[in-house]
Specification:
The chain is α/β, with parallel strands linked by helices. Strands 5-4-1-6-9-10-11-12 form an 8-stranded mixed beta sheet, with helices on both faces. Helix 1 packs across helix 6. The chain is globular, with a radius of gyration of 18 Å. The structure holds cytidine-5'-monophosphate (C5P). Cytidine-5'-monophosphate (C5P) binds next to helix 3 and strand 9.
């Protein structure tokens, strides 16, 4: 059996984006590559954990399943929701790195949507997807589940509000123990190997970590992942 700070612990990682189907051939998606999630799975393995990786749509190679790594594939937010609900009760740590679509098409067309002779374009009506992270936090007292739940916030920043402030608000709203902030946008982070993150801890967790300032890491996604896993383990 493995050694390390997470030996004997079960870590569930979600990675990549979701695809929300419009019709049998079209979908709404996002630019998540899954690299940060894969790096988190690798960091958790290196820390001795037993890891279950739930992969959405990824543009990176997934690690091979092994004695301490199991893999599962999902496509839509609702499939991810079911997978997380099934895995969370037996997890010690949940690392929710997936870029989950906030909205999906309200109606799925069973047949391919056709162009018509008139010039009108169809209107796509969207509906909200469940917030899997918030839901997992809420269900925890009754259903049991991860001691440590880690959320991720990709902020482009609107220039007006400090991204750290936005992240602090999100940490409170989601109710998770740790929140990882990264700035995303044109030429930053997506599909890249380098990243810049801040790891914010909830008020209760700050007492345990003894931290007031959020941890700040500039480096590879694996270095960022190691910092997140280290804090989750503590
Ligand atoms: O609210 P926002 O989408 O910025 O929150 C990001 C965090 O919440 C990520 O950890 C993401 O995996 C999670 N999330 C979720 N379900 C959603 C949207 C986001 O679990 N529908």
């Amino acid at each position: 059996s493995a050694a390390g700070p997470l030996a004997g612990r079960r870590v569930v990682v979600t990675a990549g984006g979701t695809r929300e189907a419009l019709d049998p051939v079209r979908y709404l998606g996002n630019r998540s590559s899954g690299r940060q999630g894969v790096a988190l799975a690798e960091a958790a393995l290196a820390a001795g954990a037993e890891v279950h990786l739930i992969a959405g749509i990824v543009e990176t190679e997934l690690p091979a399943a092994g004695p301490r790594l199991s893999l599962e594939h999902v496509e839509s937010a609702r499939e991810l929701q079911q997978a997380v609900a099934a895995q969370a009760p037996s997890a010690d740590v949940l690392l929710m790195a997936a870029a989950v679509a906030d909205f999906r098409p309200a109606d799925y067309a069973a047949a391919k949507i056709k162009k018509t002779d008139d010039v009108d374009a169809p209107t796509i009506t969207l509906t909200r997807n469940p917030d899997i992270l918030a839901e997992t936090v809420r269900a925890r007292p009754a259903r049991g589940g991860p001691t440590v739940i880690v959320g991720f916030a990709a902020e482009t920043g609107d220039g007006a509000t400090d991204p750290l402030e936005l992240a602090q608000t999100k940490l409170l709203r989601k109710g998770c123990e740790l929140l990882v902030l990264n700035r995303v946008g044109e030429g930053l982070v997506f599909g890249r190997d380098s990243t810049e993150i801040h790891v914010l801890a909830s008020f209760g967790v700050q007492g345990v970590l003894g931290d007031v300032e959020p941890a700040h890491v500039v480096g590879t996604k694996r270095e960022a992942a190691d910092a997140v896993v280290d804090r989750a383990a503590r």
